Amino acid sequence: MRCGLKTALAGLAMLILGPAAAAQEAEPSSSPPPAIAAAALPDAPVPYTQIRPKRPQPKARPQATAPQSVAGQAAAAQPAAPAVAGAADVVPGLPVQATGARLSPGETIPTAELEAFVDGWVRDAMAREHVAGAAVSIVQNGRVVLKKGYGFADLNPRKAVDPDRTLFRIGSISKTFTWILAMNEVERGRMALDQPINRYLPEKTRVRGEGYRRPVTLKTLMDHSPGFEDRAMGQLFERDADRIRPLDLYLRQERPRRVRASGVASSYSNYGTGLAGLAVANLNRKPFEDLVEDELLTPLGMSRTTFREPRPERRGLPAPMPADLQDDVARGYWWRGGAFKVRPYEYIGQIAPAGSASSTAGDMARYMLALLGDGSWNGATIYGPRAARAFRQPIQATAPGINGWAHGFIVYGLPGGYRGYGHDGATIAFHSSMVVAPQLGLGVFITTNSDDGHELSGRFAEAVVRQFYAAPVTFPRPGSAELLAARGAFEGYYVTSRRAHGGLEGFVGLMIGGTQARVTPEGRLVTGSGDELRTWVPEGPVREGRFIAADGDERLAFRMKNGRAVSFRDAFNAAQMQRAAWWMHPLLLGALAGLTGLAAIATLLGVFLRNRRDFRESQIQARAALTQNIQAGLWLAAFALLAAWGMQTADLAKVFFDWPGALLITASACALVAAALTLVTAAALPAVWQGGRRVESWTGTRKAFFTVTVLVYAAFSVVLGLWGLLSPWSG
Q1: CA-CA distance, 558 to 30, in Å (whole number)?
Q2: Which of 580, 615, 631 is the last residue of a domain?
Q3: Is 336 helix (H, G, I), strand (E, B) or coil?
Q4: What's the angle, vertex CA 101, arms to CA 95 and CA 103, rounded to 5?
Q5: What is the pLDDT of residues 95-130, one digit of tens each?
Q6: For the chain, give me the number of helices (H) and strands (E)?
Q7: pTM for the whole thing?
């Protein structure tokens, strides 16, 4: 299991979220699959995944999977054609088109071929990524072609995943229901995309101007450009059902700051989606949960989908999840110490429009059929033609293949040059993805119930499209001599715009929200750090700043200014990665922390190592020395407390639920007092340097050491203040 602050908290970039904003991937784990996962994953040929070369995995033991729907049973009745290993990885029986793709866009994927591919791909990924359970549904050309469960919804007692009964948390896929409700109000003429969202909100939840003239509109909420900072710690998820608040109260109490003008740049915002959900609920004078059931879930027959959560009924809150659904809610798991550990239930009802939905693979198949049918399926219509066009029309123009926002839906660039629409979703333990590709008449949904499921869910739709509709591609793509010559234009450290802009959460955001860009001698661009690396090659002239993954189809687009890259959009357009200011570099913070630690240790050692002559000092010098000794102890205590807190971040849930925690607050308080004492020692410097051989005074060497220590502490204090660590009250 990967651990450490940067790796463990990288989940923040994808939670609830949504888009797997971290466009980086870790090396596959070399440890054997867990026994439980091995039991859940029958022997199967490993098909062509084209994610990246995998380390050999121990052979999995057979076990029964969950029952299938009628479509799945029909598929199972046909003999499954095995995936053929090797360089070509050709699936037998599929026609090869002139383009080199196995199927043309109008052709339906043969069900047996599809099931054979999906079985191998999913089971292989579940073993590799330590995923306890998963569910898949795939629709095409107006019907369900595959619906299947894998592994377990519960390990004690063991309960296999049932695609028609098991409810998984679908995270930010919930947002797509919110945007449909909002577009319905636009079609009715009761909301307007370009009018201030404040027109539709209760007075106490209205967005404050904070010096920005351009108002936040429904349109800017849909493309995630309202200009809010992003805060999540300690309030986006709750472990205790008693802490759930009504939506309007949550939006009042957890109001983020506006840090940029509305409509300037996309930076993913759960809070913004919450505002949109409250606006439509306010217009209809009913709770959001009731509204989504009446307008969307009931008409589509999605009886096993709900935004409600399994908790006791409480006055002032929407009704809880119906009892007949609660027994089928999948448990969340994380892989720790060679075994699966149960995650506590993650309550998100306080901001339900952004991520509280639970659903089954079967219900999500119905939903995808409606999306592919421009809002209509099985005689029901949940939105009209204007919304249908909007959900397939990016609000912001993007370069070919670059993901964007289509009125709340993510626009995906898929293999073969196809375009998809949908959303990713994540909580701490659940990871899901839904992509519909109208050109192919195809909808793909997958959901998992384990912390590391994002590697599985995030690439599944791409793998299906590549397998059947994309021409073979040789990986890795070659580097570029032109990029090598222009390396200085791209290399540097970049920081995400999707973070808190201050306080302790801002400190953590800067710790985990940056990426290094460098160019290799082979002419490839590498982003990330440690084992979280992605490699890119130019797509078109280097001066345009467009890149494609060396081993996939993700794109990267830099904004160029005077021939130099100043920012780039991450793979899901969920944030801008901006060139970091000088004080944002972790190397600077680390260097100053190292110097501060050395100075503190030397200061305390000096108390015991000085000879008798060194103890000659004036009264001011004695007091200055005492102050600096106290500082040294406080700095070392702060470092120790931060290290202890960092060790706890291996459990992301603990960080969220217990935020900020006694360790981090105490570390911040120690650092704050130590930084404040720097003002005292700096003020004492002139007096410290007074005196000579005729009076009691320090040696010149000790005076110099004292001065250097003051300067080191002062520099470190300034940088820590800019990073947000010197504000223990902000937690």
Answers
A1: 34
A2: 580
A3: strand
A4: 45
A5: 555 567 889 987 999 999 999 999 999 999 999 999
A6: 21, 22
A7: 0.85
